[in-house]
Request: fold
Amino acid sequence: MSSLAWRPPILETERLYLRPLDENDADAVFAYAGNPNMTHYTLWETHRSRDDSLLFVRDYAYSRYCERVPEPLGMTLRERPDWVIGSLGCFWVSKPNAIMELGYALSESYWGQGLVVEAARVLLDYTFTEYPVERMQARVVVENRASHRVLQKLGFVFEGNQRASLFRRGKFWDVAYYSVLRAEWEQLRGLPPSMLHLV
Reply:
């Protein structure tokens, strides 16, 4: 991916670096994405082999970076920037309607430490500043209580459930929808009103 003309920037938090992924991250991605406990409620399937993770960091990440969106970014601890412990990103759901979606995943070893909330705040600040997005949405399996808490802490508003809208692991799941609008995020974070204009 070194030949890409555009790559997401490296973002920093108190405890984390958020950076673009590349093929060297395949082992680290497989370490968390291959864990069925971590992927029990994800909207994507458990990685079955390192090859699945390699496809993710090479093909999927490459395709998103070609779209010039910050998705996916690898989460690393500041003291070990070479080893990703999760990923998160924002991507277009409908560019004409200015809708993006936030997604995230974190290694089971780091659950319960507030890392996703910390990372997402910085990523959302960046995205609302750099992209003409009006609505940022997120989807979570209804049973995923930890993910509900993440979005509530970020200030997202619960909109409702879509019943049986996801088929994964042999069953249908209800999916909850959350969103935060640009003006709401700017107020929550004390950001100046946006100068971006929809085109």
